What does this fold into?
Amino acid sequence: MKRRDDDLFQLAFGDIRGDEAESIEATLDATERDLVQELRCLKLDLQSLPVPEHQLSTERLRDAILNEGLQPKPVSQPWWRLAWAPFAAAAIAIVAFQTMNIGLRSEADRVAVVDPVSVSSTSSGLLDSPGPDFVFRPEHWYEAGARTAEPNFAARSTDKRVPSTSRAVSRGRSSEVASRFGGSRSDLPVTAPGVVSPSMDAVPGRSLKSGDGAAADALPVSGNGGVILIGAETDSTTGANRAIEVQDSRDVLIGG
Amino acid sequence: MYSSVVNIAVALVLSGPAQVQKLSKVESDVWRSVRSSVLVLQANGSDRGVAICVDASGYFVAHKNLVGFPILFGRMGNGQMIQLYVHSTDPTTELSLLKADVGRLSGLRPVAVAEEPEGNSLSTAFAIVPGGSIKTEISSVDKLGIMQPSRRAVPLLELRFEAPLTRVGGAPLFTQKGELLGFISAALATDEDSRIQNQQTLAKSTVGGTGGFGRGGVVQVAPTQFGPTGLTVAYAIGPSAMVRVIDGYRSPERQVVFPAIGIVIADAKPTGAEIRQISEKSPASEAGLQLGDIIIEIGSQRIRNQIDYAKYMMRRKVGESLEVKVLRGTETIALNVVPRS
It folds into this structure.
């Protein structure tokens, strides 16, 4: 029976040809004929799927494995050929560090111009909304947008020692949001050194917990204080707007 | 072995897009029960999504993402095609009101809005798409969403679909009884690049790498593979907001109103919500609120941060007078503000 099934599969998938195929086909009953027909349709469907060809037969699978296994091995290099590497790495690091410092300062200035909080709007609604060229970036929800609107921002941003106010922006959160969306540190409006607070994490969080005051009982509260930021861009897979969940909402700006 | 390979291939084919077309019995039942309340939207010769009937005189609601076409048609349950135009769009929820270009339509049943689901119980819901309905699990009922670009807060339901290839964006969400729960407005990003970056980010933050994220794992990673199929995490605007939308679009003004006083706020330390922006001629500016004021109380409700404020305002009404207590320097000042829409 097992052998018969294998014959039918091989016949349907074209692995048996010529006389042998004809002889098997001649002995098919109605059920087997339907099965073979169904398998042939399946074969057509499979061709539209991104399944690697070598997964469709044992022979091709074997060939694929052997081909992978017989790659030429890299030839080992003498140690002195790599002696220049540490010096090159150190030089690149120094240049990159200098470039990043300059880039971050200029980026902070640029974002101060385009951030929706600092842009005056012609909207007729109560809340100003950004212009049509505004692109969804999660950091736009963050406190840094408002901070860039303050006149002394640039001056304070050069002070690397002390946070300018107690509401300085956490470097950690901003970095993470940027990396999620593929941005680099230089994309961030919040990375100016003066507004980074290394001690921010030590401040006790004020997440909303049940029993913590009357508000928590009266209102629908996310257990950990997290919020969902819903962007204006549409996800091509789902057709829905792109969303991210931020577990710590302290730096999120809300209108209302 | 040959049979096993083919069996896997069969499973692959069956778990593909075909599952969306093949409805289970309960999905078919839900689809039949809501068919007279929904309209399949068509543009440029193909189905775009679904609108729901809010008024038998020819008014429908659909998500903004589905209606941005110059010429839009709707197919009723009885097969009748009608042309639609966008009457208005609510900027807070991004739900549009559509008007049919004909008079009263027969065979239409306006939707009823469901009650808010219970807090701790997982329940089932059904997203309505042109091909029928798709079952989904409500994994959370107390999420708070911040919409871009309005920055307005809306209550959200979190949903989990085992249907990664389905375009569920903008789909209305119904209970098994055929009552409207909400509209799916967003989904966690699912593209491969974002996923890889998320995992790298999370790995750095949890194994003490150089990421330096402090609290670690701040941003939730979209789960992508829990079973034989992928997973889509989506968010739907919840019933409490839907009641406002449906009531607003059914009103003679055909307008949705969410109360606002015209400010943008951030968290303040040690407590309260700091005003970062005030719109001109808004209730806030007319009441005398100023930039830098820290809201600590509204209508006897203590405000610990901007989330408290947003959630409080979601339950207020336009025109209702609210006493706002703010910290200005070392002074505590009480002001009366009347929210508008």
Summary: Confidence is low (pLDDT under 50) at residues 103-125, 127-224 of chain A. The CA atoms of residues 234 and 241 of chain A lie 4 Å apart. The two ends of chain A are 71 Å apart (CA to CA). Chain A touches chain B through 90 residues (CB under 8 Å).
